[in-house]
Amino acid sequence: MAIEKRLRRPDKYDQAIKMVEEIGTTTEGDLIINVGPQHPATHGVLHLVLTLNGETIKKVEPHLGYIHRSIEKMCESLSYRQFIYVTSRMDYLSSHINNHACALCVEKGLQVEVPQRAQHIRVIMDELTRIASHELWWGAMAMDLGAFTPFFHAFRERETITDIMEKTCGARLTMNYMVPGGVMAELHPDFQKDVKSFIQLYKKKIHEYNELVTGNVIFQNRMKSIGILSYEDAISYGCSGPVARASGVHCDIRKLYPYDIYSKVEFDEVIESAGDSFARYLVRLQEMQQSIRIVEQLIEDIPEGDFQAKTKAVLKLPKGEFYQRVETARGELGVYIVSEGGTTPYRIKFRSPGFSNLSALEHMVKGLKIGDLVAAMGTLDLVIPDIDR
Amino acid sequence: MTNEDLKIKFTELLPAITFDESGEWLNVFVAPGELKSFAQQIRIMPGLDFDYLFCLTCVDWKTHFTMVYHFSSTIHRHNIVLKSKLDRDNPEIETLSDIWRTAEMLEREVYDLFGVKFLDHPDLRRLIMPDDWEGWPLRKDYEDPINMIKL
Amino acid sequence: MIQEWLNNHFNPTLALLTEFILVGLLAIMLFALLGLILVFMERKVAAVMQIRLGPNRVGPKGIFQTTADTLKLVMKEGLVPDGADKFLFNLAPFVVMIVAMLILAPIAFAKNFQIWDINIGVLYLTAISSLSVIGILMAGWASNNKYSLLGAMRSGAQIVSYELSAGLSVLSIIVMTGSLSINDIILSQQNGWWIFKAHIPAIISFFIFITAVTAETNRAPFDMAEAESELTAGFHTEYSGMRFALFFLAEYINIFIVCAIGATLFFGGWMPLHIGHWEGFNHIMDYIPSSIWFFGKTIGLIFLIMWFRWTFPRLRIDQLLNLEWKYLLPISMFNLILMTVIAIMGWHF
After folding, report:
1. Nearest-10 crossing angle of helices C242-267, C86-103
2. How many CB pairs under 8 A join A and B?
3. Across chain C, which distance is largest between two alpha carbons, in Å?
4. Fold that domain A71-388 belongs to in CATH
5. A324/B contact by beta carbon, under 8 A
6. Of the candidates B59, B102, B129, which has its C-beta nearest A359's C-beta?
7. What parts of chain C have a pLDDT lower than 50?
8. d(CA A387, CA A90)
9. Is A100 in CB contact (< 8 Å) with chain C?
């Protein structure tokens, strides 16, 4: 009331002030605070409205749409060769894998056979991207919990990977490298040598990570038994990727519905059964080790041949529907194309992994404290452009 | 289970069902009024156990809407696609969010972008667009001279 | 020493006044210098641990970085939020700063270089340091901001709890020396520092002391009150400009002071490293000036505390309080008994 007396403001502001004064507390004296959309933690623009009772969380409501770019509508007017590169911007940390998914879906429609060399290259790029994404997740999560040093160590490794990518693909983050039929260009001559030296370096660093963070008592106390997601809940909420695997669900798309040459490489599907934040953490760390194992198997002998199958310049998919699932660093990405026979898709739907993982957040943190919300959200590994599309 | 067995089981549950096997998975067409009971059956029936709803979307065919649900079973590893044809002028359908919790946010997104009303949804409001947005953006006849550029 | 010279030359009142002014000037200069050095040291230590360089542009090797930062803070606009309680909001930084200055009185920087050798030195230190909680709570409350309030509440609970453990571990050393005066404590370490002489209980005391004072000064891993990734900046969110500079400076001065107390009690203050009655060795050690001993030990402890910050993640507020009440307090009480037994039986060096 004091504010209204002192200043003259137009109607809109009066209503806004009244609204803020009203939602300040609920009838039981709970506190409603906003976390975001501008964060000190590096999650992107996520706006959570928390209802707190003291330090205990009663309700979490995500407000999305701050980075909605209407990608699905945009793709309805882009050709089949063009729309692939918009998806790099969706989940920018696993940009190769997103492009791979779209390319596979288009190839499914065209029924094109991808040459062996291209398949090898695609899988190597995918796994390197997965390692880079998990590195960033590890650094950012440690920083959320208060340890500032692992962030720099993680980025040191990530820099090596992006340097390798830059030589071949020309870009460091949104690497538009996949095309329907194969990859866009030949590998850089230094690629094999660089990747081999990276593998040697990386195996030593994984030990450092375990010493610095995993074995630390404070980390374990902050993450064990926090944010528990049971087996049934993980399936019911549609979670996928490391979030579901930490609750015991066998859902690795690379094993269930293998694409490219995943059926021919040897790697383990990492499953933990505890379902808490520490289990999700361990699953991702072990996934990094499995990824480096895959790269090691494939880098030795990449078969000679074409890096791209011959396709027409203007692609037309036959009338029908096509769905392709891949395993990104966050979970299951689904690309659903409805085609009417033209040069542009009639409807595209991207089933994003972060969307379903986020819907499980409220269930996980009800009754815990704010510090636990940060830990649980960190282990969910959300990338908001992926959710908002 | 193979497609043939699935077809037999589905026809037992709901005789007025039609199939389409031209795609990768079995497409099942159900009327909107029967969707909820059918969905409940396939969720719990032993042998079917479709417990994983992994994609929920809507396609605007200019004369009608089609709701598309992709189901999978974590136990038997079979997949189906459930489709339901909706009236364009008054698109209403029952919500599935009490059977599969993931449907809650996915249905909010479909409501936001297409305007499909989900009956008995616990919290049906806009998700991605601003709360006071007017219009349903992903419909084919959506016009917005300010924000949209037609290529 | 200076006291005698002044008293000899001028009449007592004038001498006292001059002494006041001199001491005041020295204290302020010390604060300014310490602030500059410690902030710079923190940034460089952080950089080395994070495989990067740290400030290296402003001045040779970046040594004028903090001066530049201070200038910037002084010239910033000091905003007072609309609904804030003006009097308390402005008073809070000064309370924290005054407390920091008062604690400086009994600390001995070098031989014969102590402002006031009060006979209840250690008790005075513990008592005055408890007052800083008032400043923090004032800041949080008067800011009219939910985040500040939450941060201040957390901080208040934390500081009040950890004072107990810190006090008990300090007390265990007092049991050995039998005197509260700082000068007496230092002189009693003439034949060896307490951490070596009263072996096991003193080492346990030292660890508890370091943990407790890290929590008292709101440093990581106990910096829930200013947890950046959760609640922006905690109790000093709404402060900007000179007021923020005072809070910032007070934090680093507090670190210096608690490390100085730790160095005095456990490591001998300005007393060089003497081993029992080895005359020759002791004589050589005496050549190094006492102020270098004192500052060396303090800076060593400060480095340890900074090392903690950049290695460990944060504890959650209830884990923090759990640690104190369920673990540290019983251990420090038991340790006190142990120390008393050793003192009575004479099982120390």
Report:
1. 30
2. 79
3. 68
4. Cytochrome-c3 Hydrogenase; chain B (1.10.645)
5. no
6. B102
7. 228-229
8. 8
9. no
| Min distance B100 CA to chain A CA atoms (Å) | 5
Other C-beta atoms closer than 10 Å to the C-beta of C14 total: 12
Give which of C119, C95, C115, C96 is closest to C105, Cα–Cα: C115
Determine contact: B74 vs chain A, CB below 8 A.
yes
| Touching, B vs C (3+ Cβ pairs under 8 A) | no
Residue of C nearest to A226 (CA): C316
Structure tokens at C241: 């400009």
Residue C290 · residue C283 · CB < 8 Å: no
CB proximity A388 to B under 8 Å: yes
Residues in chain B closer than 8 A to A357 (CB atoms): none
Cβ atoms of A281 and A314 closer than 8 Å: no
Q: Which of A34, A55, A148, A157 to mutate to test the interface with C (most CBs of C within 10 A)?
A: A148
Residue ranges making up the domain that contains B36: 3-119
Query: Do chain B and chain A touch with ≥3 beta carbon pairs under 8 Å?
Result: yes
Of residues A11, A14, A47, the one with CA closest to residue A32: A47
Phi, psi of B22 (to 5 degrees): -80, -20
Instruction: Please provide the size of chain A in residues.
Output: 389
How far is residue A200's CA from residue A213's CA, in Å, rounded to a whole number?
21
- pLDDT tens per residue, range C126-171: 888 888 888 888 888 888 777 778 778 878 888 888 888 888 888 8
Structural domain includes residue B146: no
In chain B, the number of structural domains is 1
Cβ contact (<8 Å) for A236 and B60? no
Return d(Cα B35, Cα B83) in angstroms, integer: 9
**d(Cα A238, Cα B97) in Å, to the nearest integer?**
12
- Chain-chain contact of B127 with A65 (C-beta, under 8 angstroms): yes
Q: Please give the residue of chain C at the shortest CA–CA distance from A377.
A: C230
Are C146 and A216 a contacting pair at CB < 8 A?
no
**Partners of residue C150 in chain A, C-beta under 8 Å:** 55
Contact B102 A251 (CB under 8 A): no
Best residue of B101, B106, B110 to probe chain A, by most A CBs closer than 10 Å: B101
The angle that helices C242-267 and C132-142 make with each other, rounded to 10 degrees, is: 160
Spatial separation of the C-alpha atoms in residues C272 and A131, rounded to whole Å: 53
Grouped pLDDT means (10 residues each) for chain B, 151 residues? 80 82 84 86 84 88 89 87 88 87 89 88 85 84 77 62
Alpha helices, DSSP H only, in A65-190?
71-75, 95-110, 116-145, 149-169
Chains that touch C (3 or more CB pairs under 8 A): A
Burial of A16 (0-12, 13-18, 19+ CB in 10 A): exposed
Q: Where are the domains of chain C?
A: 1-75, 80-345
Q: Is A232 helix (H, G, I), strand (E, B) or coil?
A: helix
> What's the CA gap between B15 and B12, in Å, rounded?
6
Q: What is the mean pLDDT of each run of 10 residues along chain A (389 residues)?
A: 47 58 57 75 77 81 87 88 87 89 90 89 91 90 83 89 90 87 88 91 85 82 86 89 90 88 88 89 90 90 86 87 91 91 89 90 85 85 87
Q: Tell which A residues from 338 to 357 touch B, by Cβ distance under 8 Å.
A: 338, 346-347, 349, 351, 355-356
Residue B136 Cα, gap to closest chain A Cα (Å): 12
The residues with which A308 forms a beta bridge, in sequence order, are A182
Q: Is the pTM of this model over 0.95?
A: no
CATH classification of the domain holding B91:
3.30.460.80
User: Is C314 close to A146, i.e. CB distance below 8 A?
Assistant: yes
The DSSP bridge pattern shows strands B18-20 and B64-72 to be unpaired
Phi-psi region of A351 (alpha: psi -120 to 50; beta: other; left: phi over 0): beta
On chain C, the residues whose CB falls within 8 A of the CB of A37 are none
